[in-house]
Amino acid sequence: MKRLRAFLPFMMPRDGTCYITNTVLVDLLPKLRCLRVLSLKGYGITVLPDIFENLVQLRYLNFSHTLIKSLPASICTLYNLETLILKESLLEWLPSDIERLVNLNHIDISGVKMKAMPYGIGKLADLRRLSDFILGAGDGYRIRELKNLHLKGDLSLSGLENVVKAQDALEAKLIDKPGLDALRLMWSSISGSSIRDKVVEEEVLNMLEPHRDLKVLVIESYGGTKFPNWIADSSFKNLWSLDLNNCRNCKFLPSIGNLPLLKDLCIRGMHTVTKLGIEFYGENHLNSFMSLETLCFKDMSNWKEWDIDEHAVKFPCLREFCIVNCPQLSGRFPSSLHSLETLVIRQCTQLVVSVSNLPQLHDLEIDGCAELVLRDDADMPPLRKVSLSNVSKFSPLTERLVSGLTNLDHLRISNCNELASLSWKQFNLVRHLWSLRSLEISSFPLLEVEVQQLQLEKVCTIETLTIGNCEKLQRLPQDLHFLTFLTEMQIKGCPCIVSFSKNNFPPALKRLVIQSCANLRCLVDQGENTSIDNTFLLEHLEIMDCPSLVSLSLPNRLQVLIVSYCSKLASLSSSGELPVGLKQLVIKDCLVLESIVHTIHETSSLELLEIWLCRNIKALPQGLKKLDHVEKINILQCQSLVSLTASGLPARKLKSLCIMDCQSLGDLPNMQNLTALKELSLSYCSPDLPFPKEDLPTTLTSLSVTGPKLCRTLLQWGLHRLPSLKKLSIDGEECPHVVTFPPEGCVLPPTLTTITISGFGNLRSLSTTGFRNVDSLRELWVLDCPELESLPEKEVIVSVWKLYIWRCHVTLLAQFIMNDGAEWLKISHIPDVIVDRQSIIPKATWVQY
């Protein structure tokens, strides 16, 4: 072990919880004098021990994604250290003697919220990669320290508002650093932006001219009124990405059209720009942006005009184009973008968008524009996906506009009033969509009974149909039964629909969601036969927020039924039976529902049963105990439920049972035969609810109990009789007799990993004897025990990783907060201590990841 060269973290477990003891950090690591690589990446370290003077052979240190705020001074004795990774940590400052690390080659502090850099960074002659250089208040002159550093890769300069002399920026010598690939220049976006000197910031940016080999440039929150000329210099032959963000005072964009290899351009938050003129394209404005592939304009609140020369060759390689939240931009959209594949326009309510001369356009998304235009002499592009929302006008709106949409896969139309006001007899939007797979129509306030004129039988390939917020829609199209590939349908916010026609359901429909249809009374028209025959393939039915619904007709092949917020639903099934194949049944907030069904057939496939906020349900269905497939039952806030004895509980596969806030429940059925039960929660029911008549199943791994009778009987019965128990939560409200937990004679199972103790008003101590054998305990939660003054001795809770204390005795809390006293000594080894929602850092630190 003493010759170990590399110490690396284990792979993080799925639950994200793992610890390493203080012994490893304080005792083991100092002995590994041959160590070259040390990584504690991802551990929840808060404090590092000052042990590094013994590890002088270290070349690589990684404390990224940790909770450390500072590095120990002994770090600066690692004269052989070459790489220091602190990415995404909570580090507040680097060591003041960092200049002593003469072999340091790489420092990564990206994502670290440091306020300033230490002195001496500029003396690290071998430093080649520095992710960030942060200039604190009054320290702007220290940008000069970059002068002699031969940096490579990516560099982010932040706090540039603190540079008050342009000469200091010039001395950074960025122009002499050919190894830099990406440069990010950042000024503060919040503090003092109104009093900053615009002229100084213009001079500073001018002096921060980088080498011509730069590939990526970001300028953020720059406060000057104009950009320097070097940004648009065509000699930047390798620059492929440019991002100008939140440069609020710049009235004009730089003339960057002649940057020869520029591929990605993003311009955001330029609120003073009102016009994009010919200067934007550069000197050779007839042939500009020749390599650009991605262009995005976003959040430009005062941009009104875009000069476009339709005869010039611009953006010949542009594939993705996005304009978002430019509400005053008016006029026409650029055309002749022959390589454009994706076009996104959002919140540009004055803009006229043309889709003429876009021969490669596949994806079109428009949410808010003045007009969508297709010239008479232009062909429709080969669109695959179209989303149109809040488009005020279509020009021209003729058959030719949609005749070219034969390859369309996905179509979404929302709140396009001109389309909604059409007479579908004169013009049909969808009959040319022979390849359509997904159709969504929403916010058509004028769409009424004429919806059948959509002629949906012409788009027989459709698989998903959504109709939403059509306030006057009274019934669905009669030709839905022609859609033989339709498997999913959603109907939302259609208050005039009262019922559906059984004969009109698509034959292959498997999933149906109905939401916020205020006047829906029944699933199938009551004038028809209310049963649904075996030819109906529906497997998933979800009905939400339909307050007028009174009854349901359930198809025989249904597997999932979810009904919620249907306050008048009186009957779950018109036949009085559930489908035999039903696997999941979830009912929430159905206030008048008195019964699910009287009896469930023993051949039922039910696996999940959840009932929430059904205040009139008095009992669960007969035959429940005979079901072979039920794995989970949750019953919550059913105030009229009085007994579970008649229905019983399914014994064969039931793994999880939760009964919560059922105040009238008077008894519990036998649970000893529930041999598969792993999780049991009995909470906030009647104070007189007794303990189950027989023993609890020994298979339990999680137990949560609330109530005086349950708690008292459970402690008397003996928790040690649950040999597999890992998680225990016990709420002792109205248990004044309990002053010590566990009470004398009660032994906790040694398998416990998490214990939560709450609501014991007179609890004064946690028993050392009771906790003695719980060697696997990892988390201890003690909540709302106002008299608690004493915890178990340290030796019996040495395995604990997390301690959470809330609303306990003030003297106990004071010791923890002050890191002092006998009770503090008991828990000072625990790495994660939270007292009244305040994190306490123990002096003897362990580590978590």
Automatic annotation (TrEMBL):
Q: Which SUPFAM superfamilies match?
A: L domain-like
**InterPro entries annotated for this entry?**
LRR_dom_sf, LRR_R13L1-DRL21
Which residues belong to any copy of the R13L1/DRL21-like LRR repeat region domain? 143-270
Residues passing through the membrane, by range: none
What top-level branch of life does the organism fall under? Eukaryota
The name of this protein is R13L1/DRL21-like LRR repeat region domain-containing protein
